[in-house]
Amino acid sequence: MIKEPYQQPQPQGGQITPFLQFIILSVGTVALVFVLSLVATGLIWAFFGEKIFTDALSFNTQNPKTGQALWLLQIIGTTLPLFLAPVLFAKFVVNEPKTYLKPAFNFHPVLLIFIFAIMFFSSPVMEVLVNINEKLVLPDSMKALENLLRSMEAQAQKATGAMLQMKTIWDMLFAVLVVGLLTAIAEEFLFRGALQTIMIRLTKNPHSAIWITAILFSAFHMEFFTFLPRVALGVFFGYFVMWSGSIWTSVWAHFLNNATQVVIMYLYSQKKISLNPDDQHVFNYQSYALSLIIILILLFMYRNIAKGKSLLLS
């Protein structure tokens, strides 16, 4: 049975307002990212030298050590601050770490199987959203912004490509650890932990809070042309946490999504599979419809089990 079924967080006496919490968390996160990114770039200069430093900042993939420097920047300058920000906020600002981080494993293990199934069967739906997103264009008056967004996304893809040049299985396992596990933990503690809790208290509506958090989660990645599928993932993650009461359900889902992409990229680069991970025209319309139906059924079953309504848990 679920030990502590989900309940909407209630404001505590004398607590700072949710809006001010949002400002503090946002400013604190940006500040930590800025400071620790400076630390990371200093370490790159110290350990790798000026040439690697400049190659890393320009994403020069011709230099084999660029990837190592970028990993250092990723872990210290991004992953670490995204984890520290919600933890420090929950502990020292609001002093409610259990409510804002939801670190307890207070859910039935079968939910992890349902999450695996939902993530597996969601691929066609995600493909539809990617294809829709790719066709979206901004008005002519915002063409400069669109060009900027395209340039930023190209740079992000270039950085990812430099880090994910996986020549051995050990390279792949390292990427799974960092991109799959550590990134999942950090981002979920920040978004589905602290931020979603703030939004629930701000809007007094958990459904609105989940969607707002998912939109902010997608916007945070600054990749406009994969915005919609990332919003959908954020919504899935949000409901996993809301219904289960534990952050580890969304961490598991996030890990599955990221790790799967890393493994597929590795297998494709090693010519172990022929499926191009960048190909977004794999499924047909029947697959799209079936995927949506299966996801809705699985989500309904997940919700009932998480709330203790299923006979499986009696």
From TrEMBL:
It comes from Mucilaginibacter oryzae. GO terms for biological process: CAAX-box protein maturation. The keyword rRNA-binding does not apply. The keyword S-adenosyl-L-methionine does not apply. The chain crosses the membrane at residues 20-48, 69-90, 110-132, 168-186, 209-228, 235-255, 285-302. Residues 171-259 form the CAAX prenyl protease 2/Lysostaphin resistance protein A-like domain. This is CAAX prenyl protease 2/Lysostaphin resistance protein A-like domain-containing protein. Pfam families: Rce1-like (PF02517). The lineage of its organism: Bacteria, Pseudomonadati, Bacteroidota, Sphingobacteriia, Sphingobacteriales. One of its GO terms (molecular function) is endopeptidase activity. Keywords: Membrane, Transmembrane, Transmembrane helix. It comes from the Bacteria.
